[in-house]
Amino acid sequence: MRIVKSIIRYLFILTASTAVFLFVLKEMAAAGWEETVLDLIFLLVLAFVVHQSKLSKILIIKEIPAIAYFSCAFFSYSIMAFLFIGSPLWGAVFLAASISVFIFLKAVMRRKGKRIGFNVFSLINFAVFLIALFSFPNLGHLSYDDMDREKWDRAGLERPGVNWLAKSLPMEDGFQAIYPMGETELVKRFDPYMIHVIENDAVLISYERRKRIDKINLKTHSLQYFFREGGRRPFFFLSPDNKKLYTGSFYDSPPNRKMFEVRVEDMSMQREIPFGNALNGEKSPVFNGFRIGSAIGEQKYVCTFQGDIFTLGEGNKVENSFTSASWGIYNHFSFSQELNRIYAPSFPWRLYSISMRPLELKAERFLLLGMWTVPIVKQNEVATNGAFSVLILDSETLETKRKIYTGFGIRCLDYDPMRNWIYVAKYFSGELEVYDLGSGEKIGELEVGPLLRCVCYSPATDRIYTGSSTGVLEISPEIFSK
User: Which chain regions cross the lipid bilayer (predicted)?
Assistant: First the structure.
């Protein structure tokens, strides 16, 4: 009986710790590192208070300290793993520091007749991570913006076939953003997050934290932008005629949630479309954070961070809605009117296929670390990324038809229908890799810059557009054919 109780206890602690850890990851994505650390510190303080009080003898409540320690351990070890991936040297230094301090304390406490265990080791790891976070802010944000730029110069970016639309240069207080017409701006971070090309006229660029959307004219190289208050990551979508742009407040709370309609011609605000007070059938807020959308005719599709999809009809009233079983549809919804599908990866382990008319779940499957989907209409396929490969799936059933091994670190994909190529953006290595979709053969690669968040191919210009911390590039696919 004692063994059964122990098993139940440890399963409860593990389940609760995993839930807290997933909440922390969500908080990290939504609110940033600083608030995440404060949440964990609050959890540790709560654990200490419970441990020192009479509540420590009450069933379930007495397990709070163990849950707190395990949650901090999961978080600290995951960060250590990220550090190893992005910067093996610093990852090794911090892990070695944690182990060394633990061994030293254990030896000292043994001489005093006391023992220390996993909880102390977890706290040491968390403390070392905090030291790294405050001493090296670039590590805390998984940002490698201050990497040696000579590496990227040696990569051969200054050559025919590669054109800078925007370049960032490291400065003492941030980065200097340089645009084609010579405009410069001192920014705290340069972090392109989403790129869209309007025919052969202009490129639209949004950023992770700059809260604005840039429009660079491809003919005149002039710069216009729309500044949006409230929340990071200004996702956007366009009307079918490309004359209107829609973006929204990602993290704002009711009643501030709204969608902005912007005139693309001069990037000026046309109107605000409030939807923060709309309620669903369960009387809870409909919109829990604008993510991305699409417009087909007068109907708009709006997707949210927590996995809800809504259609807005005439008068921008909610007509239909769909809620997935997962709370964290993290990154990229893709829409295909031809296939009548919305593809939604639910990071870190699900992929959903949803019909657009009506909004109904058609298929779902397990997908580890999937963040991006690209419909391939003529072949009735959809490309998505797994943990270490690009998966080519059946557009109806989501069954795997073939795999293209690429290695770890895929952030974004796009498809080139003229050559049947798939473009793969590697976040940490900063490499743009090109593969033949049919054979799976690697065509080539180009180091374009660290924190490579987005890649976009435009058939109208026959160019590839990438956004990293070094800048926004316009690349000719012909450089991979040589």
Answer: 7-25, 37-55, 67-85, 91-109, 116-136
Q: Are residues 191 and 92 in the same domain?
A: no
Q: Which domain holds residue 325?
A: 149-480
CA distance 409 to 414: 15
Shared domain for 133 and 154, answered yes or no, is no
Among the three residues 140, 160, 180, which one is the final residue of a domain in this structure?
A: 140
DSSP class per residue in 421-482: EEEEEETTT-EEEEEETTT--EEEEEE--SS--EEEEETTTTEEEEEETTEEEEE-GGGGT-
CATH of the domain at 471: 2.130.10.10
- Same domain, yes or no, for 90 and 192? no
Q: How many domains are there within the chain? A: 2
Say if residue 373 is exposed, middle or buried (CB neighbours under 10 Å; 0-12, 13-18, 19+).
buried
Query: How many other C-beta atoms can be found within 10 angstroms of the C-beta atom of residue 160?
Result: 8
The answer to whether 226 touches 207, Cβ cutoff 8 Å, is no
Rounded Cα gap, residues 156 and 471, in angstroms: 14
**Which of 140, 169, 203 is the last residue in one of the domains?**
140
CB neighbours of 137 closer than 8 A, spacing ≥ 6? 143
Same domain, 298 and 387: yes
Residue 108 sits in the same domain as residue 171 = no
For position 117, what pLDDT does the model report?
63
According to the model, what pLDDT value does residue 143 have? Answer: 38
Flag residues of the chain having pLDDT under 70: 1, 24-36, 47-48, 50-62, 75, 77-91, 94, 106, 108-109, 111-119, 121-123, 125-126, 128-157, 229-233, 249-257, 275-292, 305-307, 316, 325-331, 347-348, 482
167 shares a domain with 277: yes
pLDDT, position 55: 64
Cα(413)–Cα(345) distance, rounded to whole angstroms?
Answer: 13
